[in-house]
C-alpha cells in the first residue's frame, strides 16, 4: 500500500471503497435477516395468544358446566 506512488494511493482508495461496500452489504443482510426473525417471532406470539384465548374460553365453558351440575 505504501509503495507505488499515485497508483498505490489509487489502489488503496479502491480497496477501502471495496471494504466499505462489503461492510454495508453485510450490515444490510444482517438487518434483513434480523427483521425476518422479528416478523417470525411476532407471528408465533400471535398464534400463541390466540391459542391461549381458545384455552381460556374452553376453561370458562367447562367451569360453567360444572357450576350447573
Automatic annotation (TrEMBL):
Cross-referenced SUPFAM superfamilies: F1 ATPase inhibitor, IF1, C-terminal domain
Chief location of this protein?
mitochondrion
The lineage's top-level taxon is Eukaryota
Q: Where are the transmembrane segments?
A: none
InterPro entries per UniProt: ATPase_inhibitor_mt
Composition bias (Basic and acidic residues) maps to: 59-69
Q: Which UniProt keywords apply?
A: Coiled coil, Mitochondrion, Transit peptide
One Pfam family per UniProt: IATP
GO MF, any single term: ATPase inhibitor activity
In which family does this protein belong, per the annotation?
A: Belongs to the ATPase inhibitor family.
Report what the protein is called. ATPase inhibitor, mitochondrial
- What organism does the UniProt record list as the source? Magallana gigas (Pacific oyster)
